[in-house]
Fold Polyketide biosynthesis 3-hydroxy-3-methylglutaryl-ACP synthase PksG.
Amino acid sequence: MPVGIDDMAIYVPKLYIDYKDFAEARGIDPQKLEYGIGIKKMALADANQDPASMAANACMRLMKNNDLHPQDIGRIYVATESGLDESKAMNSFVIGMLEQVYGESTLEHAGGIECKFACVSGSYALYDNTNWIRAGESNDKAAIVIVSDIAKYDLGSAGEYTQGAGAVALLIKENPRLVAFDERVTSTIIKNEYDFYRPFGKETPLVNGLYSNLLYLIQVRKALETYKEKALKAGIIVLRDDESVTDHIDYISVHLPYRRMGEKALAYLLRHEWRHLPRWKKITEEIGMDEPVPKDPRGTIESILADVEFMKADEKFRRAFMITKYYQDVFDKKMASSLQASAVIGNLYTASMYMGLRSLLEFEYLKNIDLYGKRIGFGSYGSGCSAMVFSGVIQEKYKELVSRMNLDRDIGPRTKISIEDYEKLHKNTRKYNEAFLDAEDEFILVNIGGKTADRAGFREYCYAG
Ligand code: CAA
């Protein structure tokens, strides 16, 4: 019995900052943000929102849209890297919020945990819940995996223009209507790294930006190697001499810290997959230069980044490759639609690849393409670090769901705020009772802590109808 994503729902906070305002305030060329990063609007959580309330809002929408009741659900997992408590799991807050609407203890029978591994943990949560159902443990109940994050970097840092906020809730079931995951192909890679991390008590991460970019690419590529071996063994892909695995994957959805990273990841993976194929000669002819090789091809990431001559030549080659018709053709057909949401929302950490999936489905559907049977390859990455590559096939009933997707409507009317107000939110100078917007049909944070020490850190939420 196939298992996979039956439906998905999103929640994006309605406040945003515009890239032009941001560029002006920070003295950056707006073209860098629009094209170099690929961001136009960055979603911001209001003072009365946090990753738990966003997760509960996405989950509630998923339940309402599918007429799901608590007894239909066996597990609720929340994957996040914006944890609110070192011990209490975020899904317990979410259950508390849902039970305000569905009734006390209505979700008592369900299980679940908060999962953490930077941006990749949602993919682990999906995999584990898929296997829970495959193993026959679900007692005919569905699992819900929610990915929810606030991407927040230091003011004035290079990471600041890769912020965003939002949540995606995914309904995992047998015979899914959207995407059934391929079996025996999921591949992971793991390593102890410090590319991006957030020590206890710190609200913003410490980031080695360029290192994290290269590490992301290398780790996803390594996971793809194992995926390829498994996919060939499982027989879901059969390769002829002049073919690469990417020729057999109809859509490619990757982790999107920012839009441009998706484009760069595709270039990196295609170069890796194609450089040994006959087509590579024609591609390098079109580019007009050979692919550069580092002085020490087996060196460390540090040694490659320090190889200035190679890095310069490689950047030149990559840019030229990205405007070849070979790259452009794959990009337009297999990736472009998945990047649209990222440009108007920003980084969602755990949720970014799943917002990308949602974007892919909606905008490919609008091209009048028959998506039934198309295979999507996923390249998930989490700093620290781990990558997961897996795939799934779009199911026959996708239309009944995808035809209803509408990103603008689902985000709702948005409010642009000034850079001054954004900075107030960033510095947490506005309290939960000083939100910019009035809440409507959503969960909000209404209290943190209490008058007595035994209620320190208590977070209270309510449903604002
Ligand atoms: N017009 C157009 N483009 C311009 C430009 C201009 N005037 N000026 C610069 N650019 C382009 C650059 O050429 C570059 O393009 P390419 O990537 O194609 O080379 C792009 O804008 C970015 O500019 P820089 O290379 O100068 O990079 P930066 O100093 O702005 O930093 C960043 C970019 C490293 C991503 C930084 O924003 C950062 O540290 N972000 C947080 C970390 C991150 O997102 N890492 C990604 C991998 S780790 C991960 O994925 C986990 C996660 O979610 C965090």
About this structure: The chain has one domain: 3-464.
